[in-house]
TrEMBL record:
Belongs to the site-specific recombinase resolvase family. The lineage of its organism: Bacteria, Pseudomonadati, Pseudomonadota, Betaproteobacteria, Burkholderiales. One of its GO terms (molecular function) is DNA strand exchange activity. It comes from the Bacteria. CDD domains: SR_ResInv (cd03768). One of its GO terms (biological process) is DNA integration. It comes from Paraburkholderia acidisoli. Residues 2-135 form the Resolvase/invertase-type recombinase catalytic domain. The active site is at residue 10. Pfam families: HTH_7, Resolvase. This is Helix-turn-helix domain-containing protein. Keywords: DNA integration, DNA invertase, DNA recombination, DNA-binding.
Length: 201
């Protein structure tokens, strides 16, 4: 049963000495080291480290944020380790999943992560519902200038050009173009009605 360490710094200019000392003091014989941003998915040494771990081993890090890109990523990695019967230890936070207290902490982390995801989903649904109530759909507003609108409507009269091509050219959806076309027709009809009524008086 080996104790394997993993250390990471964000830039090549930063030093790993502090982490190495802490990991060696925790019994790590072999240490894998990455020099990459915490948000980067390209952490080759971490991949090699996780691959090298065997059942009964312990992975030790200096601090939790050295391992996961975010809370969900951290929990995912630790859950995978637990599934392989590999223990996890974080020096700074005094977490050791080899004991009941450490396991409890990660169960709480997992519950908090799920709670956060649920809140985000609820806020998104509520936001979309509020937008629909105000007559708007979700997403980036798609606006054309008056000149672009005239050009788009003129192009839509040309059957050699598809609506999809026109939409792509102006950076809007096809539904936006159809809405503009409908509004234009209604405007023309209203104008003609007004002119007709004016002539009748």
């Amino acid at each position: 049963m080996a104790v394997i360490g993993y250390a990471r710094v964000s830039t090549a200019e930063q030093t790993l000495d502090l982490q190495r000392d802490a990991l060696h003091a925790s019994g790590a014989v072999n240490i894998y080291e990455d020099k990459a941003s915490g948000k980067s998915t390209d952490r080759q040494e971490l991949a090699q480290c996780l691959k090298a771990l065997r059942e009964g081993d312990t992975l030790v890090v200096w601090r939790l944020d050295r391992l996961g890109r975010n809370l969900q990523d951290l929990i995912r990695i630790v859950n995978e380790l637990e599934g392989r019967d590999i223990k996890f230890k974080s020096v700074k936070e005094c977490i050791d999943t080899g004991g009941p207290a450490g396991k409890l902490v990660f169960h709480l982390f997992g519950a908090l992560a799920e709670f956060e995801r649920e809140l985000v989903r609820e806020r998104t649904v509520a936001g979309l519902a509020a937008a629909r109530a105000r007559g708007r759909k979700g997403g980036r507003p798609q606006i054309l200038t008056e000149k672009e609108t005239r050009a788009a409507l003129a192009m839509m009269k040309n059957r050699d050009i598809s609506v999809a091509e026109i939409a792509q050219r102006f950076g809007v959806s096809r539904s936006t173009l159809y809405s503009l076309q409908t509004s234009h027709r209604q405007s023309v009809v209203s104008k003609l009605k007004g002119e007709t009524l004016g002539m009748s008086h």
